[in-house]
Specification:
single chain, Fumarylacetoacetate hydrolase, domain 2, 7-stranded mixed beta sheet, 5-stranded mixed beta sheet, 6 helices, 12 strands, globular, binds hexanedioic acid, binds magnesium ion
Length: 269
């Protein structure tokens, strides 16, 4: 697994109207409309893609949304295999993406949403740049079971690495369960994703970069390339432990994480 792609400095994206791509990404997300991949006709690289992501989320913030954390993506082999991209990536979470635990989710406004089981960190203090696992955990106030609702805005859920980064790493919604003591061991917890009471994906938190705390370490390192730090009060989603499962209208979804508890929601058309 590579985690090095955010460091590119020789951008091939100069000459591309990144704001125009950001507007397209934002419009597609806002209206739940599928769009062609940007790399079909633009030589967008990773650095340019993160610039598009920042500008696209900037449009949401300008409409009044608040940044509440970050999501790490493609942090497990199952996820990488599912989408054919094998780089760890990150995206931004806003308050408008939060879905209350136990609530109902409408498919309106999504293109082709999926759900995946995750672990969430709540930060007590800032994290910035390269940190050790111990330093990362020392900044954590609490850990919780979580579900991420991802929704690529690209047609047929197909994209290259720069495409998915520009599309805020498919970030769309997130559900967080009850918070637990950060001293709770999380390196190898059983994780189950259920649909209508039946297990559809089973995995372990160890699938997340070998230990979810490594994902937090990566988050700290990667956001620094965007001149950001992880802020106190922010949530960091560590990434899916299993492949993601399509959301179906009328179904109920639940994530169970050993020792941490559950998180659930129901889908309506
Ligand atoms: O959270 C994730 O791992 C998703 C990252 C983007 C790829 C996808 O849409 O599955
Ligand atoms: Mg995820």
């Amino acid at each position: 697994m590579s985690t090095s792609t955010d460091t590119s400095t020789d951008s091939t994206s100069s000459g591309i109207d990144l704001d125009e791509l950001a507007t397209r990404a934002d419009d597609a997300a806002a209206h739940g409309v599928a769009i062609p991949q940007f790399t079909a006709d633009h030589d967008l690289d990773v650095a340019g893609a993160y610039a598009v992501q920042a500008a696209s989320i900037g449009r949401r913030l300008a409409r009044g949304e608040q940044l509440v954390g970050v999501k790490m993506g493609l942090t497990s082999r199952a996820k990488m295999t599912q989408v054919g991209v094998d780089e760890v990536i990150w995206g931004r979470l806003t308050d408008a993406m939060h879905v209350a635990d136990g609530s109902t989710v409408s498919l309106d406004g999504y293109v082709h949403p999926r759900v995946e089981p995750e672990i969430a960190f709540l930060l007590a203090s800032p994290l910035s740049g390269p940190v050790s696992a111990a330093q990362a955990m020392a900044a954590v106030a609490a850990v919780a079971p979580a579900a991420e609702i991802i929704d690529s805005r690209f047609e047929n859920f197909r994209f290259s690495l720069p495409d998915v980064i520009a599309d805020n790493s498919s970030s769309s919604g997130f559900v967080v369960g009850g918070w637990s003591d950060p001293a709770t061991p999380i390196s190898n917890l059983g994780m189950v994703l259920e649909r209508d009471g039946r297990a559809v994906e089973i995995g372990s938190s160890a699938a997340i970069l070998g230990d979810p705390v490594r994902s937090l370490v990566e988050a700290s390192r990667m956001v620094a390339h965007a001149n950001m730090q992880l802020e106190p009060g922010w949530i960091v989603l560590a990434g899916g432990a299993t492949a993601a499962v399509p959301l179906e209208a009328g179904s109920a979804y639940r994530v169970l994480v050993e020792h941490l508890g559950t998180v659930s929601f129901r889908v309506v058309p």
